[in-house]
Design a protein that fits this description.
The protein has 5 helices and 15 strands. It is mostly beta strands.
């Protein structure tokens, strides 16, 4: 089956060893709400390569606008995956309204602050912080204050809005970007920049230049690719997934760049999405036309 054309970022799937604790962390500290709770269907679990997770509890979380975007699947036997050690999805970049206020609120929370609020290298248009969540997932919490061409970025509509950039680490920027350029029918940007949280985690100088690429998608969403050397292979294509970011979700788009109407994830079925694997071993779902 030919994969559908890649459209806007829709959300992501996390794996946790403790669903109740993980959902409470996001609801109590990141302004999310439980939108739907159920179980992972046996057929979908098999299709994802995780047959033993069929029937396991899962939940969808939504922002305060009642837009579900984050699925959390429980795997009680999951080993905690440490961030910055594996290729594949590293981080979920989420649009927030006031990153400084959120940073203060997260000081006593299950989210470990690894980068306090600060302006990015591009200047005062973007201010962000970085945290590690209860599953070992990295979150970039980003306040967009002004337009920053050529990027098309969202302004937060509520205190913590939703995912707009899944960020991945790859051994080869060109191979990873080429995969998504072909899927999206668009050309990305290539540049070098410092990424302090990666440099700190990998023992590199703070100002070390990392090869980076971005691919603009519809809906003010993007994919970011950070080239890093010497990591372990992506860890989610196995029968017992560890904790962390397991899947990114995308809606499908047409050649003109428009996207299909967004589905209610609580009504998903296996036939609604196409499973694909990128050049760094990361896996993602694209909504079928």
């Amino acid at each position: 089956m030919t994969p559908p054309r890649l459209g806007p970022v829709q959300g992501a799937t996390l794996v946790t060893a403790d669903l109740a604790q993980c959902t409470a962390s996001y609801c109590d500290h990141l302004h999310q709400r439980e939108h739907h709770r159920g179980v992972l269907a046996d057929a979908e679990a098999r299709a994802l390569g995780w047959p033993e997770l069929g029937g396991t509890p899962c939940a969808w979380l939504a922002n305060t606008l009642d837009e579900p975007w984050l699925r959390i699947i429980e795997n009680p036997d999951a080993e905690r995956q440490q961030p910055f050690e594996h290729y594949g999805w590293l981080s979920l970049e989420i649009s927030v309204r006031d990153v400084d206020a959120l940073g203060k609120a997260l000081e006593d929370s299950p989210f470990d602050i690894i980068g306090p609020p600060a302006n990015l290298a591009v200047g005062e248009a973007i201010r962000a912080m970085q945290v590690v969540g209860p599953c070992g997932e990295v979150l970039y919490l980003t306040e967009i204050k002004a337009d920053l061409p050529p990027f098309e970025l969202p302004r937060a509509r509520c205190p913590v809005d939703r995912l707009f950039i899944p960020v991945m680490m790859a051994p080869d920027r060109e191979a990873a970007l080429g995969h998504y350029e072909q899927c999206a029918g668009a050309e990305g940007l290539r540049f070098e920049t410092r990424i302090t949280v990666i440099s700190g985690a990998r023992g590199l100088d703070r100002d070390h230049p990392h090869p980076v690429a971005t691919l603009q998608l519809p809906g003010n969403t993007l994919i970011e690719i950070d080239q890093v050397d010497g990591l372990a292979p992506a860890a989610f294509a196995n029968a017992s997934p560890p904790t962390g970011i397991a899947l990114a979700h995308f809606r499908h788009g047409n050649p003109e760049g428009a996207a299909a109407p967004e589905q209610d994830p609580g009504a998903w079925s296996l036939n609604d999405f196409h499973l694909a694997t990128g050049a760094a071993g990361e896996r993602y779902l694209v909504q079928n036309p």
